[in-house]
Amino acid sequence: MSLFFFGYFAAMIVATSILVVALRNPVYSALSLLVMFFHVAGLFVTLHAEFLAAVQIIVYAGAILVLYLFVVMILNVKQDDRYHSQWRIAGFVCVPLLIETMILLAGGTGARTTGTQTGLAPAAETIAPDNTLAIGQTLFSTYLFPFEVASLVLLVAMIGAIVLAKREIGEQDNPGPLVQTKVAE
Amino acid sequence: MVTEFGLRLAISLTQIGAVMCIVVVTVLILTLAERKVLGWMQDRMGPMEVGPYGILQPFADAIKLFFKEDIVPAGANKLIFTMAPILCLIPTFIGFAVIPWGPNWTFEINGISVKPFVISDINIGILYVLAFASLAAYGIILGGWASNSKYSLLGGLRSAAQVISYELNVGLAIVGVLILSGSLSLVTITDAQAGWIWNWHIFALPAPQIFAFVVYVISVVAETNRVPFDLPEAESELVAGFFTEYSGLRFAFFFLAEYANMVLVSCVASALFLGGWHAPYPGTLMELVGLSSWSWIESTMWFAVKTYSLLFLFFWLRATLPRLRYDQLMRFGWKVMLPIALANIVMTAIAVFISQQIN
After folding, report:
1. Do A70 and B157 touch (CB under 8 A)?
2. Beta strands in B7-151 (DSSP E)
3. Taking 70 as the threshold, does the pLDDT of residue A174 lie above it?
4. Which of A4, A65, A84, B343 has the most CB atoms lying inside 10 A of its own CB?
5. Per-residue pLDDT for A178 more than 60?
6. CB contact under 8 A, B131 and A54
7. How close is the nearest chain A Cα to the Cα of B326, in Å?
8. Topology (CATH level 3) of domain A1-81
């Protein structure tokens, strides 16, 4: 049963990810990205990481992608062909990656990884009852320093956005709504 | 195995059906109640023609919308134009799955434990509601874009900016309650407020969430695009905003989504801040007179009373306040609501920490 769900989510993620780059209409691309975010959240649910699934939808689907759509609609790009003739570069990057993946899957290392994965799955289920609590405790004990560094980076980004968007004092003290929403992200 | 799965599915589907019926009936009542309440507040009668005292008006409206001509404007993106109202409606209805309507009882049916008053008690309940509430913006923004109309597009864009801004305040206002109750599950949060009225999170020691409640209510009014924050559909500027080009059933879907969303946020507010299905006194009166198996009626009625009072507040605001200007709306959200919500989180955290140290 879980294998079936994993197969469904994985296949949909691959298909919609391809659609994101293959579709010509940017709005359709954004929509397939939305479907993809949902299936990634589904993968998290199959791993008993409900908190991550919810955060995935709230942050990516609920906020970031809406802003993407926002920009796409303001620019009103119907079809932009500039970015659609890059198959050579894409092939140059992707074919070696594909070959590497094939070698890894075919070789002995792949078999060992799957072995450890099945060993890890029950261990993950033992913290399942309240994984929000588990994430919080790990984040604020073991990974406290990386967590603080990450928040500092975000703070710098926020201040940077404010500095970029702020007008000189004396001009109209009234930044546009778009600027303000961007600062929030 | 198969029969157990089938039974579970049947029970869940029954619950989902029941909740959907309750929500749709509530929306029907609301459409009438809004016009009646607005009428009384403006010293007129409201709809009086259909049925005695106008109480059959919602059915007349529904039939009218159902038989209206369905128009797709020239140059519209047909696929997205069709999809948008559904995208708006579905997330709202999905959110009701985690709302506890009544006592936290568990029945055993053939070895399957069933909670009759909540479809699914998941441990991230409130995050689940927030996640799906944030998706309702897609329906609005895509509907506005697909209509191929200036007014619709502007309405959709305004709505996207507004929903994102105020969603943040909703999320932050809730955090205080989460600190007090120590859980994300709406069932657990409601259970933490049992007893007298001062155990409700809005009054609860050590950190009464009254400011959080005010921020929450104002923010959800903005998030549901209601007056005084109804800029996405400001008649005087944008005709009807994002659904200018919609008619018939598709318009009805947007309408239904807006009202269902109001019901959802009111349910969440009563579960988080106002004690959910708990009465303002410990236990229930039904238990006192020895009818404890019927006490669920009293509990669900308390939940309904709280939810309907909040819905009345929506109408009251609509009858009282003029619409904000767009920059006022944004400034209010970011410079007033957000600092209050953040200060509330800090104060709650400090108060809870101190009270834990004392005990």
Report:
1. yes
2. 107-109, 112-114
3. no
4. A65
5. no
6. yes
7. 8
8. Four Helix Bundle (Hemerythrin (Met), subunit A) (1.20.120)
Give the residue-averaged pLDDT of B207-236. 81
CB B242 within 8 A of CB B143: yes
* Secondary structure class of A78 (helix, strand, coil): coil
What does residue B113 show for φ and ψ, rounded to 5 degrees? -85, 130
The per-residue pLDDT for A132 is 79
Domain ranges for chain A: 1-81, 143-185
Contacts of A73 in chain B (CB under 8 A): 141, 145, 153, 156-157
Q: Do B141 and A61 touch (CB under 8 A)?
A: no
Residue A173: per-residue pLDDT? 52
Place of tokens 């599915």: B9
Percentage of residues in chain A having pLDDT higher than 90:
7
Query: Which of B127, B134, B164 has its CB closest to that of A181?
Result: B164
Q: Considering only alpha carbons, which residue of chain B is nearest residue A176?
A: B327
Band (pLDDT 50/70/90 cuts) for residue B56 is: confident
**Token digits for B7?**
């039974």
Residue B128 in this model has a pLDDT that exceeds 50: yes
**Could B164 and A184 be called an inter-chain contact, meaning their C-beta atoms sit closer than 8 Å?**
yes
Single-letter code of the amino acid located at A49: A
Using CA atoms of A59, A64, A70, A72 in order, give the dihedral in degrees to the nearest 10: -140
Rounded CA separation B269/A2 (Å): 36
Q: Using CB atoms, which residue from A27, A132, A174 is nearest to B184? A: A132
